[in-house]
Amino acid sequence: MKSERTAALLVASVTGNTQKVADALQGELERQGWNVLHLVNRERFEKTVEADLYLVGFWCRKSSMDDSSRRLVNQYQGKPMLVFGTMGNYPTGDYADLVRGNVQEIVNARNCCRGVFLCQGKIREERTEARRKLSPEEPHYLDDEGYRRHLESRRHPNEEDLQNAVGWLKERLTA
């Protein structure tokens, strides 16, 4: 018997980080009896779908959600959305709070943001090395602390991140 509850799982993932989190969330939704409508990469997503709940997966770009995720969110109006994203930075602290705030603002402009989950995701080695070669005066220069963070990112999203994402989802579904 199919569930009466339908979730649309809409994911933008370039490197596979966000998709990995989406897969964990999809598994939990299905365990709880949700009918999961879609699991798509947003670049190929051209029409809206009807659901009881929308889960939007994004990758962090310029302290916010990537452009395709932003366009997707703006295609909807008045929809309940849980938003999850991956970023090279740590998911706690001032920068993470800035990202969460920016994402909530985008979603709440036309929809209802019911929460934002962030976890660290892998940063490609070539990006790390390119930033390391910049002059220290450049705003995107990677100092030693940033370099350590980039190296740490290569271990994410890990099993703990996925468990945290599932825990976050469970909390939101019972709220």
UniProtKB/TrEMBL annotation:
<dbReference type="InterPro" id="IPR029039">
    <property type="entry name" value="Flavoprotein-like_sf"/>
</dbReference>
<dbReference type="GO" id="GO:0010181">
    <property type="term" value="F:FMN binding"/>
</dbReference>
<dbReference type="Pfam" id="PF12641">
    <property type="entry name" value="Flavodoxin_3"/>
</dbReference>
<dbReference type="InterPro" id="IPR008254">
    <property type="entry name" value="Flavodoxin/NO_synth"/>
</dbReference>
<protein>
    <recommendedName>
        <fullName>Flavodoxin-like domain-containing protein</fullName>
    </recommendedName>
</protein>
<feature type="domain" description="Flavodoxin-like">
    <location>
        <begin position="10"/>
        <end position="165"/>
    </location>
</feature>
<dbReference type="GO" id="GO:0016651">
    <property type="term" value="F:oxidoreductase activity, acting on NAD(P)H"/>
</dbReference>
